[in-house]
Amino acid sequence: MNSIPRRASRPVLAAAVISTFALALGACGGGGGSGASGGDDSVVIGYTGPLSGGGAAYGKNVQTGLQMAVDDLNEDGLEVDGKKVTIELKSLDDKYAPSTAASNAQRLADQDEAPVVVSPNAGAIKAIQQINDGRSKFMISAYTSDPAIMQADNALTMMIPPNFESYAKPYTEQGMKHGGKKLALLGTESEYGQQWTKAITDEWKKAGGTIGADNSISYATVSDFAGPVSKALAEKPDSIFVGGPSQPTALIMEQARKQGFEGSFLVMDQAKLDEMATVTKIENLTNSIGVLPVKEYDDPGNKDFLKKYAEVAGEDKVATSETALNYQSMAIIAKAMEVAGTTSDPDKIRAAVPDALSKVDDKYKVNGFPTKITDQGHLMNPELEVTYLNEDEKYTKIPVEQVSDAK
Amino acid sequence: MNALKNPRILGTLAVLVVIALTPLAFGDENYIMRVITVGLCSAIAVYGMNIILGFTGQLSLAQGGFFGIGAYAVGLLTTDFDWSFWQAFLVGVVGTSAIGYLSGLIALRTKDEYFAIFTMAIGFIIFLIISRWESVTHAHSGVNNVKFPEAGDIVDFSNPTAMFYLVFVILLVCVYITYAIRRSSVGRTLLTIRTSEDLADAIGVNVGLSKQLAFAASAFFGGLGGGLYASVVGFIGPDAATVDKTFEFLMFILVGGMGTVAGPLVGTMIVTFLFEFFQDFQAYRFIVLGPVIIALVIFAPRGIVGYLGGFIDRRARKRRIGSIRTNGQSRSDGATHTNASTRAGNSADTATTTEEEK
Amino acid sequence: MTLFIQQLFNGIALGGIYCLAAIGLTLVFGVLRIPNLAHGALYMLGAYVTYFFLTTVGVPYVAAIGIAALILFVLGVLLERLVFHPLRNAPHTHHMIAAIGAMFFFQSVAQVIWGADFKRMETPISGSLQILGAEISAQRIVIIVTAVIVLGLLTWFIKRSIHGQTIEAIEQDRTGAALVGINPAMVSMLTLGLSALLVTIAAGLVSPINLLSPTMGAALNLKVFAIIILGGLGSLPGAIVGSFALAIAETMTSTYISSAVGEAVAFIVLVAVLAIRPTGLFAKAVQR
């Protein structure tokens, strides 16, 4: 029937495919010219993160923070080595796959001459660490709480958030105080979830508590949380460890309350209590220990940041630390380039970070702004706090003693 | 050298020569070298799919899993057990083939769609084991610092160009094996099975054993590609073994052309670069790529190499008919008629590649 | 014991969800003889369209599911016309890849329209029932009841109505059906539309107890394929038995062994069953 148009279209299609291929090769090969050549008037900061697929929401939050900072910094005007420089954020999608992330990072460094590449996923960062300090050189702005990336001794890695292991102790203390000695494990079955489960297990046992079976489930693929929750509750726990992305975590807690659980929750830092309150009633979330919501921080730029975020993302979206911390760190990177007097030498930019920290404008300090960077490259704020959401739906702050990144 | 007059062989050689020369042009471009080298590793696994799918006609969707086993064998043995790359590589490839052979024993009892989805389940179980057996595979934390191949002081494989040529040489062997199978009686046996299992059985082919060996061979290539991949990228996570990986391979072989010698390589390179090219569209790229993929299978069902092969055949046939016509023995509409019937044949059974004997 | 009963009900509700998703897929296989890998994407779109009518437009819950089901029916017909019909003579590999292309496309479209964030769908159905000491939420009861009703209607449709009988006729003998004047092209469109409609009902029912995201269909996809293969491709009773068997196996192994085994059990059962019966539990005589 339709064989005649198809006949005509085949050569056209073949030609289209071949020309696309040629174009793609050309674009890849000739990319160097289009990027910023060092010392010009613009610099590309690279970002590779999950922008489609299961991790897309997370990747987008990070991207929003970076883009907000870039816009603000460009408005302020950045001057490096006597020249006015505009920053351009170039984002590539890696669908959470480490090997794709490494290819993307390599591309951003090679073709766009990005001195810094941001990545928000421990696996991806480990893959990128294989290539960033050898034949190609670029700094990794690493948004992950996994200290393993610091143990790699990569001179060009800057770790942004606090080490998650620091949370285990205050979580255990508070969990026992508001619940009891018996803990059920119901975290997410992801790389990060498994590490958290292990850290909490160790600390909880050290404090003399008992632990039930590991009921970790894949938050992304379970169709109905009632089953896993029933199972965890059958152990009659006093406290439950939960956590994965905010929204499914909220559903699990809601389900547990519905099935009659009255103890305390330990909420892994990936889930944000205020963001969870957008999908379930906050009364389901009380009596739980979690990370402090962005809006509870007292940093000088906090209020303005939240206002701007509402304009960018809409009123009903909650600003999370993914956005806030990357907003801050982009300002640090820009300041470090200014101090180092270069936009092309990653070693010098990294070396300038300690000086840059004290020089960043107050308006970029929004979420526990770091005051120092360790020798290994971890940004630190000595006053780290977690929160306990009490029965009156109020966030109380609890100071955290930070642990070392060494193994 | 009769072979060099065959446009198909010439074309394949041309593709190989172009790829062999890429380090000269892009040797300093780490990104392009990386994409090409990783692409070659995938292409090796796709050659495995070519044997079981292209030649034997069995849609195996476990290839991503086999790729993952090869990658993890090399990854874990060279790091946690501190073996040399070559030892680990050997064990990985042999192990993958053995696992392939064993799973084939059950898988090949099923047929058609059952076989396809059954092998998909095998691939998924492999993925689940890799992503959940934390104490052995480190699950989502992945395996870091996979070793480069050792070569004493002769070659330094941490150099991307050296690694490229290692993968390329192994790929060449795979291409040659494919070519040899295609021409040998083994290849004809497999093609007969693809055409009709009953027919093959009737003429005395041991269908079960042949399929079994073809399946093991496809696992062998999968392990080979995976093992090299682990060393090339240095860090592997469970994403090396996902079912999506299988579908990626399937896309490569379809775009290139099933059952052809050059198809897997051409398809892999074209689709890989197409995906990289569309990266600039970020999350929106699949709005364009989705329909492109659909259009490719609808309008170029035999793949690019299959399409070019068909083109060569038509030209050859035209020339033949043309020469006959000058002898005054042909009817005036002979050429168009033959042409049209070739078309009809193509669209009726798109899996059949033309001119099997070449 | 309470735990067992609790989990049994949870398993049955999960089975209802799998069942509504699986019967459409197995029908499509019976008629078009293609494994439609885009089925999970249709499920996801069904959920989002329901969400759109319920939350953004503000129509009642049941009406929202109904409107979404009709829209998805049209989408299913279009998918058949634009993607699968041109490939009707191609081998299955081509369908699979085309379906994956469609899946990528649908996922991207959903992300562009509704964003990558998880969405929660609130329903008017709330509260819970006490059965033998177990606490069962009303939504899960609704899922089970609806699954039974929809299955009943579907059986009636296929056995008694003219359009439905054409589906069964084509399943049984394509050439014969064409000879007696049934148009296979029409039936193909009808079937794909119907499968999209059924999966939308499943999505509309599940969404309130889960979350919406552009990738929500991917996890369901693999399991539903395991189910229809286990039951025997194209077999309705097979899909129903397979759904409930795998769902209960899944909740029970998660409860009494471990959640990792629970996740894998569907595929382990599949491998075991196919090793003994290579054509599934309720295999039909396969026409070639």
UniProtKB/TrEMBL annotation, chain A:
Residues 43-387 form the Leucine-binding protein domain. Residues 1-24 form the signal peptide. Keywords: Signal. InterPro entries: BCAA_transport (IPR051010), Leu-bd (IPR028081), Peripla_BP_I (IPR028082). It holds the Pfam family Peripla_BP_6. Gene3D superfamilies: 3.40.50.2300. PANTHER family: LEUCINE-SPECIFIC-BINDING PROTEIN, PERIPLASMIC BINDING PROTEIN OF ABC TRANSPORTER FOR NATURAL AMINO ACIDS. Belongs to the leucine-binding protein family. This is ABC transporter substrate-binding protein.
Automatic annotation (TrEMBL), chain B:
GO terms for cellular component: plasma membrane. It holds the Pfam family BPD_transp_2. The chain crosses the membrane at residues 9-26, 32-53, 60-79, 85-107, 114-133, 162-181, 213-237, 249-274, 286-309. Its main location: membrane. Residues 323-358 are annotated as: Disordered. Keywords: Cell membrane, Membrane, Transmembrane, Transmembrane helix. This is Amino acid/amide ABC transporter membrane protein 2, HAAT family.
TrEMBL record, chain C:
GO terms for biological process: amino acid transport. Pfam families: BPD_transp_2 (PF02653). It is a multi-pass membrane protein. This is Amino acid/amide ABC transporter membrane protein 1, HAAT family. GO terms for molecular function: transmembrane transporter activity. The chain crosses the membrane at residues 12-32, 37-54, 60-84, 96-116, 136-158, 179-205, 225-249, 256-276. Keywords: Amino-acid transport, Cell membrane, Membrane, Transmembrane, Transmembrane helix, Transport. InterPro entries: ABC_transp_permease, BCAA_transport_permease. Belongs to the binding-protein-dependent transport system permease family. LivHM subfamily.
